[in-house]
Amino acid sequence: MRKITAALLAVLIMAACSSIDCPLNNAVYTKCRLAGTVTRLTDTLTVSAARGEGNDTVLLTRALPVDSFVIPLSYRYETDVFYLDIRPEACTPTIDTLTVTKTNEPHFEAVDCPASMFHTLGSVTCTHHRIDSVAINYPKVSYDTSKAHLLIYFKALSD
Fold this sequence. Notes:
Elements: H1 2-18, E1 30-35, E2 44-51, E3 55-63, E4 68-71, E5 79-87, E6 94-107, E7 116-126, E8 131-136, E9 140-141, E10 150-154
Parallel strand pairs: 1-10
Antiparallel strand pairs: 1-4, 2-3, 2-5, 5-6, 6-7, 7-9, 8-10
C-alpha cells in the first residue's frame, strides 16, 4: 500500500510541476488599420521590411482588398523601415516608406517558455506618395492584435 501511495504521490508531483502556462501563439505583431476617407484599399498591397545588410523581407504579398494588416517588428533594431508597394490596376505603382521607432522589451512568461519581445512605439514617419499620414493609436505592442497600433491615412485617388 505504501508503494502505491508513494508512486501516486510522485506522479501527482511531477504532473503539478510540468503544467506550464506558455502562450500557444507567442508571435508579436503590429496591427495597422486604414483610417480616414480611405478605409479599404482596393489596390494590391505588398509590404516588405528592410532588414540589415541590404536584405529585404517580404511580409505581406499582394493582399487585396485591405482594411488592416499585421506586421512583425524586429527584435534587433530600434528603428524598422517598411515599404508599402501599392499597385492599382489603372495607375502607376507607388511605394511609400513607413519608418517606426520603438523600444524593445524582453518578455518572459516562465523559464520553460520561449522568450518574446514586446515593443513600445515611439514615433512613426512616412513618405507621402499615396499615404497622407500615419498616427500611433496604441503604442504597446504585445500578443494582442485586437487593437490597431498604427492608423494609416491614405489619400483618396482622383478619378
